[in-house]
Amino acid sequence: MNRTKRGWGTDTMPRVRIMPADVELEVNPGESVAEAAWRQGWVWPTQCWGQADCLSCFTRIVDGEQDAVPAEDLELDAIRLKMTGKMRTDGQVRLACQLRCTGTALVLEKRGFRREIPEDNNMLTAEAEPSRA
């Protein structure tokens, strides 16, 4: 994969690309991938908001594993104890709420990742409602 042609930054700010959405996120030092997504207005599925409890944030590493900080015990235990066997045996599965990165080569796959819709951005307002006369 030629990252230069894909618009990947040349600075040292950690970045991660999310597929199939083909979105690049900047990740602050010490910030998880899920936290970076939430901060930048993206929905990353979760129910426990970073507690490594619900496993909804699981993701697969597609490329650049060397830029993923190794999993700590909390994440490893959650995957080992709560994830189904088939998913658990895939060493490329991580929890985005715990996953941190150090470089610009990490590529993840996550279904359900999408742009957040602000609450005040309703398409149908009182003024736009059809007349009931």
What are the main properties of this structure?
16% helix, disordered N terminus, Ubiquitin-like (UB roll), 7 strands, disordered C terminus, 3 helices, 133 residues, alpha+beta, two-stranded antiparallel sheet
Quick recap:
The chain has a domain at 30-112: Ubiquitin-like (UB roll) (Roll). 16% of the residues lie in helices and 20% in strands. The chain contains 3 helices and 7 strands, in the order ββαββααβββ.
How is this structure best described in words?
The protein has a domain at 30-112: Beta-grasp domain (Ubiquitin-like (UB roll)), CATH 3.10.20. It has helices at 33-39, 73-82, 85-88; strands at 15-19, 23-26, 42-43, 58-63, 93-95, 106-109, 114-115. It is α+β, with helices and mostly antiparallel strands. The protein has a five-stranded mixed sheet, covered by helices on one side. The chain has a two-stranded antiparallel sheet with strand order 3-7. The longest helix is centred in the middle third of the chain and has 10 residues, at 73-82. This is 2Fe-2S iron-sulfur cluster binding domain protein. It holds the Pfam family Fer2. InterPro entries: 2Fe-2S_ferredoxin-like_sf, 2Fe-2S_ferredoxin-type, Beta-grasp_dom_sf.
